[in-house]
Design goal:
about 240 residues; alpha+beta; 6-stranded mixed β-sheet; globular
Length: about 240
C-alpha cells in the first residue's frame, strides 16, 4: 500500500508563482498512491479561480473518499487539509489544533478499511512556532477522539514545520510513535526548488511494516508547489524480522 503526503501550496508553483492545479494532478497521477494527505488545499479563493480543489482533486482519480477540513478562512473561501482514500472509511473526525490566537490549524482522523485491515490515519498541518507544535502534538494525542482508536495501527502524515526533527522525541516517543522520515539530510522537502528543510513527515505506531519511504524529486515536483511530496510504501501486520 502507498501513502503520499504533500503541502500543495494552494496549487501555486514555488518557482513561478503561477496557479496550475493540473501540475498537482499530474504529479499525483504519476505516484499512484492509495492514500493521499494534502495540506493547503483551497476552496472558493479568487487567486485560485474560485476552484473547488477538494472536488477537483478527488474527482480526478475517482477516490472513494474525499474528506476536507477547512482551517483558515479568507473573506472569500479558505484552505485546509484534504484526505483522499481508495478505500471506504469506518469513521472520521476533525480536530482543531489552534493554539490561542495563532493561525488556525487542524488534524483529520480517519479509520480506513484497507484490504489488509483497519488503519487509523491522521492528516495534520502544524504551526510555525516550536512551542505551538509541542502543544498541538499533546492536543492530538490527548484528545478523546484520538484515544478511542488506540489499538489500531496508526500513521501520522503531514506538514509538521519541524525543521530540526524535535517532535520525534517527547510525547510522540512516549506514545510509541516511530519516525521514519529521518535523517534530515535524506528528507529535505522545503523549499522545493532548493530543499533545505525536512518539514513533511511520517510517524507510525502499531503493527505496520515500512517497505520504502522517499521524497519525490522529479522535475514536476520542483515546480508544482513550494514543498516536495513524501511517499511511504507499507504493509499492515507484524514485521517478519
Amino acid at each position: 500500500m502507498r501513502i503520499l503526503s504533500y503541502n500543495i501550496h494552494k496549487g501555486i508553483g514555488g518557482r513561478d508563482r503561477l496557479y496550475r492545479l493540473q501540475r498537482i494532478i499530474d504529479l499525483l497521477a504519476h505516484e499512484q498512491a492509495d492514500l493521499v494527505c494534502l495540506q493547503e488545499v483551497v476552496r472558493g479563493w479568487r487567486r485560485a479561480r474560485y476552484d473547488d480543489q477538494p472536488r477537483l482533486l478527488g474527482d480526478a482519480f475517482h477516490f472513494a473518499v474525499q474528506l476536507y477540513q477547512m482551517n483558515v478562512r479568507y473573506q472569500e473561501g479558505g484552505y485546509g487539509n484534504l484526505l483522499l482514500s481508495r478505500w471506504p472509511l469506518v469513521s472520521k473526525h476533525h480536530i482543531s489544533l489552534r493554539m490561542g490566537v495563532k493561525k488556525p490549524r487542524g488534524a483529520q482522523i480517519a479509520v480506513i478499511r484497507t484490504p489488509e485491515g483497519p488503519l487509523r490515519l491522521v492528516n495534520w498541518h502544524l504551526g510555525l512556532a516550536e512551542k505551538e507544535r509541542w502543544w498541538q502534538v499533546d492536543r492530538l494525542l490527548g484528545h478523546a477522539l484520538f484515544r478511542e482508536g488506540g489499538e489500531l495501527p496508526t500513521l501520522l502524515a503531514g506538514d509538521t514545520n519541524d525543521w530540526r526533527n524535535n517532535l520525534a522525541a517527547g510525547s510522540l516517543a512516549e506514545h510509541d510513535f516511530r519516525h521514519v522520515t529521518h535523517p534530515i539530510s535524506r528528507f529535505r522537502t522545503f523549499p522545493a526548488t532548493v530543499p533545505m528543510g525536512s518539514l513533511d513527515k511520517f510517524y507510525y505506531r502499531g503493527q505496520l511494516r515500512v517497505k520504502r519511504v522517499h521524497v519525490v524529486r522529479s522535475k514536476l515536483a520542483r515546480v508544482a508547489s513550494d514543498h516536495l511530496p513524501v511517499v511511504l510504501d507499507f504493509r499492515l501486520g507484524r514485521s517478519s524480522a
